[in-house]
Specification:
mainly alpha
């Protein structure tokens, strides 16, 4: 058992719960059936939920890219693809941070000062 195999196994173990999270996060059970699910309108999600969903999808894309690179070897332009994928993940991290500051900042000020921030 090599380190390459172990790396791929760990990535695959990480990929399975991420994929299940995205699937169950974006579908609703169909009433009266046991295993059917339907996709709901993602536009109805709260902004922080959209950010969380985007982060999970970006992580899935990065893991699939790493697994494909390890299995099929190097190819031209892989550095640019990696940079793009890491940039997308960074974008979602900043979006989550800014959304948190926008929502949590006024609440923190109110708790600290006892009056709303103007």
């Amino acid at each position: 058992m090599t380190i390459e195999f172990l790396t791929l196994a760990v990535l695959a173990c990480w990929l399975i719960p991420l994929t299940q999270f995205v699937f169950f996060f974006t579908t609703d059970p169909v009433p009266g059936t046991k295993h059917q699910r339907r996709v709901f309108d993602i536009r109805t999600l709260m902004p922080v939920s959209k950010i969380l969903l985007g982060q999970k999808i970006a992580l899935i894309a990065i893991i699939v890219f790493v697994i494909a690179t390890r299995l099929f070897g190097e190819f031209p332009g892989r550095e640019w693809i990696a940079l793009l994928l890491y940039g997308v993940l960074s974008y979602f991290a900043w979006a989550a941070f800014l959304d948190l500051r926008r929502d949590q900042g006024p609440r923190d000020a109110f708790m600290r000062d006892g009056k709303p921030r103007e």
